[in-house]
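Figure-free illustration: sequence to structure, shown twice.
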Amino acid sequence: MEEVSGPWKLVAMIACIGIALTYVLILYVPTVVFRLPPACSFKNFMIRRFICAIVSSILSIVISTLFLPVRTWAVSYLPSVYGIRLDHFWQAVVFPLSLTSLMYAGSLFLKSLLLVDSWKEHGSSGGGLPFDSCKNISERFLGWLSSIIFNVLAWRNYVVAPLTEELVFRACMITVLSVEDLKHLMSYFFALFSSAWHI
């Protein structure tokens, strides 16, 4: 790889700061950035934040693409530039998303404990045949699963936040820093901006 000059390194650092600030600020000021009226409900507010996170993620991909020395823009090649490869899918996508989602697993674990507790309560109260217990558990589980599917907080905690954070802070920022030969700054940038986002 050819040596990168000082101004491009500075531009890469400014781009990383811009990517991080855009992601953080666009989540907290959607009414200012898009000039939308205030949300009428919490669900609408969260859906707006989802849209803002997706827009910011797309913007981050576009900005980081400007730094890539890519000769071909084939759709099959571009995901591998950001670390999304089918040959290492587990290491590149599933494992980091699982680790990020692990922070939000407490509510999922609590729901599981409540389900087990209701099963024990049903069994101790002479709840009938084992088939009835299994039927009750399956009905409760399906009810619990549907409440999670339609819960915007669950979508934020388990899907939108981990996916967009990994894309912006890991894929885009690290790609820009590694292309501009600033690998020694990767851990500092990643730690600083991903922790500032969680404040």
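We now fold a second protein in the same way, so the two outputs can be compared directly.
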Amino acid sequence: MFDSGMPGSRLSDADKPWGYCDGSDRRFWSEIQNDLSGKAPLAAVEPLPEIPKDSMDVGNGYYDIDKRKVYGYDGKIKRNVDDNEHFWIISTCRKGWMEETGRSPTTHV
């Protein structure tokens, strides 16, 4: 029987509650398993790589909004982006500049 090591991963455990990522505890299984409570990284890579102030971090480099190109952190061109990726980047990715984002009443108590 396949067992990925996570609760509920065996077919025979299908009727048991999962016990993670269920609303009361939003940590992922790897965070629970490695006891990362309160210590989970904010990004996949820490410290965050430095990017130019007028660009956005895309995970494998930075995006120059004016040129619509992704550069590696070494400054070499990696790719051009199409409209879909452009809109995803500007709506999702970390900015190289500081910006007031305001307070969200649903996340700040």
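Summary for the second example: The mean pLDDT is 75.
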